[in-house]
Amino acid sequence: MITTERLQLALRVADRAMAHQRAIDDLAEAQRRLDQRYADFFEEHGRPFDDRRPINPEAEEFLPVIEATRHLYIARCNARQAANAAKRKLKLAVRAVERYDAHTFTQEAA
Questions:
Q1: Contacts of 96 by beta carbon, 8 Å cutoff, 6+ apart
Q2: What's the Cα-to-Cα distance from 24 to each of 15, 27, 34, 43, 74, rounded to whole Å?
Q3: Which domain of life is it from (predicted)?
Q4: Model confidence over 86-97: pLDDT tens digits?
Q5: Chain segment 28-72, per-residue pLDDT in tens
Q6: How many CB atoms lie under 10 A from the CB of residue 76?
Q7: How many other C-beta atoms can be found within 10 angstroms of the C-beta atom of residue 30?
């Protein structure tokens, strides 16, 4: 038989799982926007080097693209931080259910 407390814990896991998925989706969207802006910038202004090397914040040639995409990069960093926080909350909720189940099992066995 499922108790009210166990049900509440399970519902918290479900809620946190949904929040985590939304955060992952937001992160993917933020990354897509940043990648698209990089592509648009390089199409308009050209790449600083002929090869497809990654953007290097240390290289002076990449400063214009970095400045043009700073707000999108910050949004992506914030989305990543939110996704990590949501994952942490989900793990904590799952652990709470596991602790409850372990405690209930040891009491029933005794």
A1: 9, 12
A2: 14, 5, 15, 28, 16
A3: Bacteria
A4: 999 999 999 999
A5: 999 999 999 999 999 999 998 888 888 988 999 999 999 999 999
A6: 21
A7: 21
